[in-house]
TrEMBL record:
Binding-site positions, NAD(+): 75-76, 80, 149-150, 160, 179, 190-195
Record InterPro entries: ATP-NAD_kinase_N, ATP-NAD_kinase_PpnK-typ_C, NAD/diacylglycerol_kinase_sf, NADK
Purpose: Involved in the regulation of the intracellular balance of NAD and NADP, and is a key enzyme in the biosynthesis of NADP. Catalyzes specifically the phosphorylation on 2'-hydroxyl of the adenosine moiety of NAD to yield NADP.
Catalytic activity: NAD(+) + ATP = ADP + NADP(+) + H(+)
GO molecular function, one term: ATP binding
Lineage, highest ranks first: Bacteria, Bacillati, Actinomycetota, Actinomycetes, Micrococcales
Name of the protein this chain belongs to: NAD kinase
Gene: nadK
The family this protein is said to belong to: Belongs to the NAD kinase family.
Listed PANTHER family: NAD KINASE
Enzyme Commission (EC) number: 2.7.1.23
Length: 310
């Protein structure tokens, strides 16, 4: 007898157009013998609240017994789900109901195929690097967290810059008067780091990024460092501006001058379910709507194939 199957369904709570789709997904998965769990507080006032097909997840361990977490929403919903699965090893499958949806694997129009693939377990799993962050003041830890996309240290006031000293692998690199600095994973290279002028890094590249934000300095270029590099940022003591550290734009703590923020690769990756092994180039073209007009690759391949058959 096969073991019972269970998934956790995470739905954007503030988008009514998602709820009807979610109910359809629940009914199809339930009909296939898969138990669908939801987070009770997030379904209040939606069609899922009273649906007899769903069960409520354990508030203390919502992914318990789950083989997959399915997210209907945008990148924000996927980052929220990543918090739920932290340390569990349960993969995430995002269905994009947002805008760009860079973390999502499929679009809303692919829901039927998505359900079929979940039922047949027709997907692979890919590990994505995450970051762990520690903020300290006078040798005492004041904040510990993690991030899938990025850790940012930013000025707390619009009117003032902050002065930061950047350190890599225990050695000082430079001091910048700036709006902040982004420390990102390859996954996060297309998020805040991209907006700040950083490079796009393919997900399979083992690296970390450091990108200054509006730095007033001669040497203030984005940096790509090794995956085991240890990054640190110190708010220069005696300066007027105070800062704030953000993790994925979701978790934050204020930083006084003299605070030190340490960032390094975490031992706990986030696992993403994948349906296809299509090149990352294709995802960039699709998500950023890039023009590839004039590309002759397909014509060349066709001509080569024709020559081989002659």
């Amino acid at each position: 007898m096969s073991e019972p199957r269970r998934i956790l369904l995470v739905v954007h709570p503030a988008r009514p157009e998602v709820h009807d789709h979610a109910l359809g997904v629940v009914r199809r998965l339930t009909a296939a013998g898969i138990t669908v769990a939801v987070i009770g507080d997030e379904t209040r006032g939606t069609p899922l609240e009273g649906a007899p097909e769903v069960v409520r997840s354990d508030p203390d361990d919502p992914t318990a017994g789950c083989e997959l977490v399915v997210i209907l929403g945008g990148d924000g919903s996927i980052l929220r789900a990543a918090e739920l699965v932290r340390g569990s090893g349960v993969p995430l499958l995002g269905v994009n109901f947002g805008h760009v949806g860079f973390l999502a694997e499929v679009e809303r129009d692919d829901l039927d195929d998505t359900v079929e693939r979940i039922v047949s377990r027709n997907y692979t799993v890919e590990d994505r690097t995450t970051l762990e962050v520690t903020a300290m003041r006078d040798g005492e830890t004041v904040f510990e967290s993690w991030a899938l996309n990025e850790v940012t240290v930013e000025k707390a006031s619009r009117e003032r810059m902050i002065e930061l000293t950047v350190e890599i692998d225990g050695r000082p690199l430079s001091t910048w008067g700036c709006d902040g600095v982004v420390m990102a994973t390859p996954t996060g290279s297309t998020a805040y780091a991209f907006s700040a002028g950083g490079p796009v890094v393919w997900p399979d590249v083992a690296a970390l990024l450091l990108v200054p934000i509006s730095a007033h300095a001669l040497f203030a270029r984005p940096l790509v460092v090794g995956p085991d590099s240890r990054l640190a940022v110190e708010l220069v003591p005696g300066t007027v501006g105070t800062g704030v550290v953000w993790c994925d734009g979701r978790r934050a703590v204020d930083l006084p001058p003299g605070a030190r923020i340490q960032v390094q690769r975490s031992a706990d990756p986030v696992r993403l379910a994948r349906f296809t092994a299509s090149p990352f180039t294709d995802r960039l073209v699709e998500k950023f709507d890039l023009s590839v007009h004039g590309w002759r690759g397909a014509a060349r391949r066709a001509a080569e194939a024709e020559r081989r058959t002659d």
